[in-house]
Amino acid sequence: MTHCILIGAPVDCGKRRRGCLMGPDAYRTAGLAETLTQLGHSVEDLGNLTPAQVDVPAHQNPKVHALAENVGWTQTLMAAAQEAAPRGMPIFMGGDHALAAGSVAGMAAHAQSVGKPFFALWLDAHSDIHTPDTTDTGNLHGTPVGYVTGRDGFDAYPPLPAQVDPANICMIGLRSVDEAERKVLEGGDVTLVDMRRIDEEGISAPLQAFLKCVAEADGMLHLSLDVDFLDPSIAPAVGTTVPGGATTREGHLVMEILSDSGLVTSLDLVELNPFLDDRGRTANLMVDLTASLMGRRIFDRPTRSKT
User: Which of 34, 49, 223, 229 is packed most tightly, with the most Cβ within 10 A?
Assistant: First the structure.
């Protein structure tokens, strides 16, 4: 069994639409800790963290939003990941996807400290590989992959203790990629699995191929699960809805395959905006997906009341 360390990351500065700061408490209300305990895991909740107070100069891109707060969160979460990882499995309860700049950088640093290759699985409609220079919205929740892979433009951010190799990143569920991101990805080494490929090949084969690479390298795998990986018809509580996402069954299949692999060592749950939810529907689904990741199977799945 696993010692799960819940880390509340009420990051709400990666975009302008407010509400993700309520995410960590929504996961608690939806019973994340109790669900993990029922599956036999031990749970430690560190509560909600706060960003470090930093002073940074204004960015040359005037559209960049809340740079200092984003940098402060990155610093805080990078340290939290490195502190928690030796003791168990960190689960970062977000909060918008800007938090992954800190969680992924911190977990990559931990992997380096124990001599293991580091891999990341990005379940998301978006690739999030912008930089503060290239973002046309200024919303920094679209930049964490750019940061952890060492792209230029992150001078205000903490220096990376361990840069993530793009060849060790797999993105599944893509269906909204900006032109500036497309140019980087098309010439790079990131494994890209868009929804058309999933429609044609299914979701299992590309995931299994990536997991084979992780296993052969004896690597540590960080899973970053964005609510908008899922179709908005089943997961409405996200401010970046893109139609045509993963179904409930596809989501559970991914989590069950990951569970079978035994490779996941840390987890982000990001972009949950309870203000946009329907009676906790999305929060409950995200908790159910986490349960599948942590060992629940079809025969164990509870029936949920419609009221």
Answer: 229
Instruction: Find the catalytic residue in 12, 226, 250, 268.
Output: 226
**128 flagged as catalytic:** yes
CATH number for the domain that contains residue 213: 3.40.800.10
Q: Which domain holds residue 162?
A: 3-297
Catalytic residue among 69, 128, 231, 277: 128
Whether 103 maps to a domain, the answer reads yes
Flag whether 304 is in a domain.
no
Give the contacts of 174 (CB within 8 A, at least 6 positions apart): 124, 125, 126, 127, 192, 193, 194, 195
Residue 305 lies in a domain: no
Q: Please give the model's pTM, rounded to 2 decimal places.
A: 0.96
Residue with tokens 């990666």: 14
**Residue at 92 is within a domain:** yes
**Cβ-defined contacts of 62-66 (< 8 Å, 24+):** 62/138, 63/135, 63/136, 63/137, 63/138, 64/132, 64/135, 64/138, 64/140, 65/13, 65/15, 65/16, 65/138, 65/139, 65/140, 66/13, 66/14, 66/140
d(Cα 30, Cα 53) in Å, to the nearest integer?
31
- Give per-10-residue mean pLDDT for the chain (307 aa): 98 96 98 98 98 93 96 98 98 98 98 98 98 96 98 97 98 95 94 97 97 98 98 94 94 98 98 96 98 87 66
